[in-house]
Specification:
- The structure is a single chain.
- This protein is mainly alpha-helical.
- The protein is about 80% helix and about 0% strand.
- Helix 4 runs parallel beside helix 6 and helix 5 packs antiparallel against helix 6.
- It is globular, with a radius of gyration of 20 Å.
- The protein starts with a helix and ends in a 6-residue tail after the last helix.
Protein backbone atom coordinates (compact mmCIF):
# COMPACT_ATOMS: atom_id res chain seq x y z
CA UNK A 1 0.00 0.00 0.00
CA UNK A 2 2.84 2.35 0.78
CA UNK A 3 4.36 1.93 -2.69
CA UNK A 4 0.95 2.77 -4.25
CA UNK A 5 0.72 5.99 -2.26
CA UNK A 6 4.29 7.13 -2.91
CA UNK A 7 3.78 8.35 -6.52
CA UNK A 8 0.69 10.35 -5.56
CA UNK A 9 2.51 11.82 -2.53
CA UNK A 10 5.50 12.79 -4.69
CA UNK A 11 3.25 14.36 -7.32
CA UNK A 12 1.41 16.28 -4.59
CA UNK A 13 4.70 17.57 -3.17
CA UNK A 14 5.88 18.67 -6.62
CA UNK A 15 2.57 20.48 -7.15
CA UNK A 16 2.84 22.23 -3.78
CA UNK A 17 6.46 23.23 -4.40
CA UNK A 18 5.61 24.61 -7.84
CA UNK A 19 2.72 26.58 -6.33
CA UNK A 20 5.01 27.97 -3.62
CA UNK A 21 7.53 29.05 -6.27
CA UNK A 22 4.82 30.85 -8.26
CA UNK A 23 3.45 32.58 -5.15
CA UNK A 24 6.93 33.68 -4.04
CA UNK A 25 7.69 34.94 -7.56
CA UNK A 26 4.50 37.04 -7.50
CA UNK A 27 5.31 38.30 -3.98
CA UNK A 28 8.82 39.24 -5.12
CA UNK A 29 7.32 41.38 -7.89
CA UNK A 30 4.96 43.10 -5.44
CA UNK A 31 7.32 43.78 -2.54
CA UNK A 32 9.76 46.68 -2.64
CA UNK A 33 10.38 50.24 -1.56
CA UNK A 34 7.50 51.37 -3.79
CA UNK A 35 4.05 49.86 -3.19
CA UNK A 36 2.59 48.35 -6.36
CA UNK A 37 -0.85 46.76 -6.64
CA UNK A 38 -1.18 43.28 -8.15
CA UNK A 39 -3.35 44.61 -10.99
CA UNK A 40 -0.71 47.19 -11.91
CA UNK A 41 2.02 44.52 -11.94
CA UNK A 42 -0.14 42.39 -14.25
CA UNK A 43 -0.74 45.39 -16.54
CA UNK A 44 2.99 46.06 -16.72
CA UNK A 45 3.81 42.42 -17.49
CA UNK A 46 1.15 42.23 -20.23
CA UNK A 47 2.11 45.58 -21.74
CA UNK A 48 -1.16 47.27 -20.90
CA UNK A 49 -1.50 50.98 -20.21
CA UNK A 50 -0.21 51.91 -16.74
CA UNK A 51 2.03 54.43 -15.02
CA UNK A 52 5.32 54.43 -17.01
CA UNK A 53 7.37 54.84 -13.82
CA UNK A 54 5.69 51.81 -12.21
CA UNK A 55 6.09 49.78 -15.40
CA UNK A 56 9.78 50.68 -15.42
CA UNK A 57 10.18 49.51 -11.81
CA UNK A 58 8.41 46.21 -12.49
CA UNK A 59 10.00 45.37 -15.84
CA UNK A 60 13.53 46.72 -15.42
CA UNK A 61 14.18 46.18 -11.72
CA UNK A 62 11.88 43.66 -10.05
CA UNK A 63 11.29 41.20 -12.89
CA UNK A 64 15.01 40.65 -13.73
CA UNK A 65 15.78 40.29 -10.02
CA UNK A 66 12.99 37.75 -9.46
CA UNK A 67 13.95 35.72 -12.54
CA UNK A 68 17.59 35.79 -11.39
CA UNK A 69 16.58 34.46 -7.96
CA UNK A 70 14.48 31.74 -9.62
CA UNK A 71 17.25 30.43 -11.87
CA UNK A 72 20.15 31.04 -9.47
CA UNK A 73 18.42 29.11 -6.68
CA UNK A 74 17.69 26.17 -8.99
CA UNK A 75 21.25 26.23 -10.36
CA UNK A 76 22.99 26.27 -6.97
CA UNK A 77 20.76 23.51 -5.61
CA UNK A 78 21.35 21.28 -8.66
CA UNK A 79 25.12 21.78 -8.54
CA UNK A 80 25.17 21.05 -4.81
CA UNK A 81 23.23 17.81 -5.27
CA UNK A 82 25.60 16.69 -8.04
CA UNK A 83 28.70 17.35 -5.97
CA UNK A 84 27.32 15.60 -2.89
CA UNK A 85 26.62 12.50 -4.99
CA UNK A 86 29.87 12.62 -6.95
CA UNK A 87 32.03 12.97 -3.84
CA UNK A 88 29.63 10.81 -1.76
CA UNK A 89 29.86 13.57 0.82
CA UNK A 90 26.84 15.17 2.55
CA UNK A 91 28.81 18.38 3.22
CA UNK A 92 30.02 18.91 -0.34
CA UNK A 93 28.91 21.96 -2.26
CA UNK A 94 30.28 24.61 -4.62
CA UNK A 95 30.95 27.03 -1.74
CA UNK A 96 32.49 24.52 0.69
CA UNK A 97 34.77 22.84 -1.86
CA UNK A 98 36.17 26.16 -3.09
CA UNK A 99 34.52 26.23 -6.54
CA UNK A 100 32.84 29.54 -5.75
CA UNK A 101 36.16 30.88 -4.45
CA UNK A 102 37.87 29.83 -7.68
CA UNK A 103 35.16 31.55 -9.69
CA UNK A 104 35.63 34.59 -7.44
CA UNK A 105 39.36 34.66 -8.22
CA UNK A 106 38.60 34.61 -11.94
CA UNK A 107 36.11 37.46 -11.53
CA UNK A 108 38.60 39.40 -9.41
CA UNK A 109 41.30 39.06 -12.05
CA UNK A 110 38.89 40.29 -14.71
CA UNK A 111 37.17 43.10 -12.78
CA UNK A 112 40.36 44.47 -11.28
CA UNK A 113 42.13 44.16 -14.63
CA UNK A 114 39.25 45.38 -16.83
CA UNK A 115 40.26 49.07 -16.61
CA UNK A 116 43.75 48.13 -17.81
CA UNK A 117 42.25 46.18 -20.74
CA UNK A 118 39.94 49.06 -21.67
CA UNK A 119 36.71 47.02 -21.46
CA UNK A 120 35.31 48.39 -18.22
CA UNK A 121 32.65 50.45 -20.01
CA UNK A 122 31.39 47.78 -22.41
CA UNK A 123 28.48 45.96 -20.74
CA UNK A 124 28.26 42.92 -23.03
CA UNK A 125 32.02 42.40 -23.22
CA UNK A 126 32.27 42.79 -19.46
CA UNK A 127 29.46 40.27 -18.89
CA UNK A 128 31.05 37.69 -21.17
CA UNK A 129 34.46 38.34 -19.64
CA UNK A 130 33.14 37.89 -16.10
CA UNK A 131 31.46 34.58 -17.03
CA UNK A 132 34.54 33.27 -18.84
CA UNK A 133 36.84 34.22 -15.96
CA UNK A 134 34.49 32.60 -13.44
CA UNK A 135 34.34 29.38 -15.49
CA UNK A 136 38.12 29.14 -15.68
CA UNK A 137 38.66 29.89 -11.98
CA UNK A 138 35.95 27.52 -10.79
CA UNK A 139 37.10 24.78 -13.19
CA UNK A 140 40.69 24.92 -11.97
CA UNK A 141 39.70 24.52 -8.31
CA UNK A 142 37.20 21.75 -9.08
CA UNK A 143 39.83 19.89 -11.15
CA UNK A 144 42.27 20.00 -8.23
CA UNK A 145 39.63 18.84 -5.71
CA UNK A 146 38.51 16.01 -8.01
CA UNK A 147 42.11 14.93 -8.52
CA UNK A 148 42.69 14.85 -4.77
CA UNK A 149 39.42 12.97 -4.15
CA UNK A 150 40.53 10.15 -6.46
CA UNK A 151 43.63 9.56 -4.32
CA UNK A 152 42.25 10.37 -0.87
CA UNK A 153 38.99 8.74 0.19
CA UNK A 154 38.67 10.37 3.62
CA UNK A 155 35.67 12.73 3.63
CA UNK A 156 37.05 15.16 6.20
CA UNK A 157 40.42 15.45 4.43
CA UNK A 158 38.71 16.37 1.14
CA UNK A 159 36.52 18.95 2.89
CA UNK A 160 39.49 20.47 4.71
CA UNK A 161 41.51 20.62 1.50
CA UNK A 162 38.59 22.25 -0.30
CA UNK A 163 38.34 24.90 2.41
CA UNK A 164 42.12 25.40 2.29
CA UNK A 165 41.98 25.91 -1.47
CA UNK A 166 39.22 28.45 -0.87
CA UNK A 167 41.30 30.25 1.77
CA UNK A 168 44.37 30.26 -0.49
CA UNK A 169 42.35 31.71 -3.35
CA UNK A 170 40.93 34.29 -0.94
CA UNK A 171 44.46 35.38 -0.06
CA UNK A 172 45.29 35.89 -3.73
CA UNK A 173 42.13 37.97 -4.13
CA UNK A 174 43.14 40.15 -1.17
CA UNK A 175 46.52 40.77 -2.81
CA UNK A 176 44.78 41.83 -6.01
CA UNK A 177 42.54 44.20 -4.05
CA UNK A 178 45.57 45.76 -2.38
CA UNK A 179 47.24 46.70 -5.67
CA UNK A 180 44.10 47.66 -7.66
CA UNK A 181 42.78 51.17 -8.29
CA UNK A 182 39.87 52.63 -6.33
CA UNK A 183 37.13 52.31 -8.99
CA UNK A 184 37.90 48.66 -9.79
CA UNK A 185 38.20 47.84 -6.08
CA UNK A 186 34.78 49.34 -5.33
CA UNK A 187 33.20 47.34 -8.17
CA UNK A 188 34.70 44.09 -6.86
CA UNK A 189 33.80 44.73 -3.20
CA UNK A 190 30.16 45.32 -4.19
CA UNK A 191 30.26 42.02 -6.13
CA UNK A 192 31.60 40.09 -3.13
CA UNK A 193 28.57 41.07 -1.02
CA UNK A 194 26.31 39.02 -3.27
CA UNK A 195 23.39 40.65 -5.02
CA UNK A 196 20.53 39.60 -7.27
CA UNK A 197 19.77 43.18 -8.28
CA UNK A 198 22.91 43.78 -10.33
CA UNK A 199 21.74 41.41 -13.08
CA UNK A 200 20.27 43.77 -15.66
CA UNK A 201 18.33 42.72 -18.75
CA UNK A 202 21.51 42.56 -20.86
CA UNK A 203 23.33 40.42 -18.29
CA UNK A 204 20.26 38.22 -17.83
CA UNK A 205 20.31 37.53 -21.58
CA UNK A 206 23.81 36.06 -21.11
CA UNK A 207 23.15 34.27 -17.82
CA UNK A 208 19.85 32.51 -18.58
CA UNK A 209 20.93 30.43 -21.63
CA UNK A 210 24.05 29.23 -19.80
CA UNK A 211 22.19 28.30 -16.62
CA UNK A 212 19.38 26.68 -18.64
CA UNK A 213 21.96 24.54 -20.46
CA UNK A 214 23.46 23.52 -17.11
CA UNK A 215 20.05 22.60 -15.71
CA UNK A 216 19.19 20.51 -18.79
CA UNK A 217 22.53 18.70 -18.53
CA UNK A 218 21.88 18.06 -14.82
CA UNK A 219 18.46 16.62 -15.63
CA UNK A 220 20.03 14.33 -18.23
CA UNK A 221 22.45 12.98 -15.60
CA UNK A 222 19.89 11.64 -13.10
CA UNK A 223 20.38 7.99 -14.10
CA UNK A 224 24.19 8.09 -13.86
CA UNK A 225 23.86 9.87 -10.50
CA UNK A 226 21.64 7.06 -9.23
CA UNK A 227 24.30 4.54 -10.23
CA UNK A 228 27.03 6.57 -8.51
CA UNK A 229 25.11 6.47 -5.23
CA UNK A 230 26.55 3.02 -4.47
CA UNK A 231 30.06 3.92 -5.55
CA UNK A 232 32.10 4.10 -8.75
CA UNK A 233 32.95 0.36 -8.70
CA UNK A 234 29.27 -0.59 -8.67
CA UNK A 235 28.54 1.96 -11.42
CA UNK A 236 31.25 0.43 -13.61
CA UNK A 237 29.85 -3.07 -13.12
CA UNK A 238 26.50 -1.71 -14.34
CA UNK A 239 28.15 -0.48 -17.55
CA UNK A 240 28.50 3.22 -16.70
CA UNK A 241 31.44 5.10 -18.21
CA UNK A 242 32.47 6.78 -14.95
CA UNK A 243 35.16 8.99 -16.44
CA UNK A 244 32.82 10.39 -19.12
CA UNK A 245 30.07 10.88 -16.51
CA UNK A 246 32.48 12.70 -14.22
CA UNK A 247 33.42 15.05 -17.04
CA UNK A 248 29.75 15.83 -17.74
CA UNK A 249 29.11 16.47 -14.05
CA UNK A 250 32.15 18.72 -14.04
CA UNK A 251 30.81 20.74 -17.01
CA UNK A 252 27.32 21.00 -15.46
CA UNK A 253 28.73 22.23 -12.13
CA UNK A 254 30.85 24.90 -13.82
CA UNK A 255 27.94 26.07 -16.00
CA UNK A 256 25.70 26.36 -12.93
CA UNK A 257 27.81 27.36 -9.92
CA UNK A 258 30.44 29.46 -11.69
CA UNK A 259 27.90 31.35 -13.81
CA UNK A 260 25.70 32.21 -10.82
CA UNK A 261 28.79 33.27 -8.84
CA UNK A 262 29.93 35.46 -11.73
CA UNK A 263 26.69 37.42 -11.96
CA UNK A 264 25.34 37.31 -8.39
CA UNK A 265 28.50 37.07 -6.32
CA UNK A 266 29.38 34.25 -3.90
CA UNK A 267 26.02 33.07 -2.50
CA UNK A 268 26.65 30.53 0.23
CA UNK A 269 24.69 27.65 1.81
CA UNK A 270 22.05 27.25 -0.92
CA UNK A 271 23.97 24.52 -2.77
CA UNK A 272 24.82 22.80 0.50
CA UNK A 273 21.50 22.99 2.34
CA UNK A 274 18.80 22.62 -0.34
CA UNK A 275 19.62 19.03 -1.46
CA UNK A 276 19.22 17.91 2.16
CA UNK A 277 15.91 19.74 2.43
CA UNK A 278 14.76 17.93 -0.73
CA UNK A 279 15.84 14.56 0.70
CA UNK A 280 13.91 15.22 3.92
CA UNK A 281 10.87 16.53 2.07
CA UNK A 282 10.56 13.72 -0.49
CA UNK A 283 12.05 10.97 1.74
CA UNK A 284 13.86 9.61 -1.32
CA UNK A 285 17.40 9.09 -2.63
CA UNK A 286 16.23 8.73 -6.25
CA UNK A 287 17.70 11.55 -8.35
CA UNK A 288 14.71 11.37 -10.70
CA UNK A 289 12.85 12.90 -7.74
CA UNK A 290 15.68 14.75 -6.01
CA UNK A 291 16.98 16.70 -9.01
CA UNK A 292 13.71 18.47 -9.96
CA UNK A 293 12.78 18.65 -6.28
CA UNK A 294 16.08 20.36 -5.44
CA UNK A 295 15.68 22.78 -8.34
CA UNK A 296 12.20 23.81 -7.19
CA UNK A 297 13.24 24.03 -3.53
CA UNK A 298 16.33 26.07 -4.44
CA UNK A 299 14.26 28.50 -6.51
CA UNK A 300 11.73 28.84 -3.67
CA UNK A 301 14.43 29.36 -1.03
CA UNK A 302 16.30 32.06 -2.94
CA UNK A 303 13.06 33.88 -3.78
CA UNK A 304 12.19 33.77 -0.07
CA UNK A 305 15.67 35.03 0.83
CA UNK A 306 15.25 37.89 -1.65
CA UNK A 307 11.93 38.85 -0.04
CA UNK A 308 13.49 38.81 3.44
CA UNK A 309 16.48 40.83 2.25
CA UNK A 310 14.12 43.46 0.79
CA UNK A 311 12.00 43.70 3.93
CA UNK A 312 15.00 43.79 6.27
CA UNK A 313 17.36 45.74 3.97
CA UNK A 314 19.95 42.94 4.37
CA UNK A 315 22.56 41.54 1.96
CA UNK A 316 21.36 38.33 0.30
CA UNK A 317 24.36 36.40 1.66
CA UNK A 318 23.36 37.23 5.23
CA UNK A 319 19.86 35.84 4.71
CA UNK A 320 21.01 32.64 2.95
CA UNK A 321 23.48 32.01 5.78
CA UNK A 322 20.81 32.47 8.47
CA UNK A 323 18.52 30.02 6.68
CA UNK A 324 21.20 27.55 5.62
CA UNK A 325 23.26 27.21 8.80
CA UNK A 326 20.50 25.39 10.79
CA UNK A 327 20.20 22.83 7.98
CA UNK A 328 23.96 22.24 8.00
CA UNK A 329 23.91 21.76 11.78
CA UNK A 330 21.12 19.17 11.44
CA UNK A 331 23.08 17.36 8.70
CA UNK A 332 26.22 17.20 10.88
CA UNK A 333 24.26 15.95 13.89
CA UNK A 334 22.54 13.28 11.80
CA UNK A 335 25.89 12.18 10.34
CA UNK A 336 28.01 12.12 13.49
CA UNK A 337 30.38 9.69 11.84
CA UNK A 338 31.75 12.67 9.90
CA UNK A 339 33.23 13.98 13.12
CA UNK A 340 34.98 10.73 14.11
Amino acid sequence: MRSDNRPSRTALLFGLLAAVVVLLLIADLLVGSVAVRPGTVLDALLGRACDPAIADIVLRIRLPKAVTALFAGAALAASGLQMQTLFRNPLAGPYVLGVSSGAGLGVALFLLGAPLLGVAGHTLVQSLGIVGAAWIGGALVLLVVMGVSRRIKDIMVILILGMMFGSGVGSLVEMLQYISDEAALKSFVVWTMGSLGDVTGERLAVMLPVVAAGLLLSAALVKPLNLLLLGEHYARTMGLDVRYTRRRLFVATILLAATVTAFCGPIGFVGLAVPHLARMLFASADHRVLMPGSMLAGAALLLLCDLVSKLGALPINTVTALMGIPVVIVVVLRNRSLLR
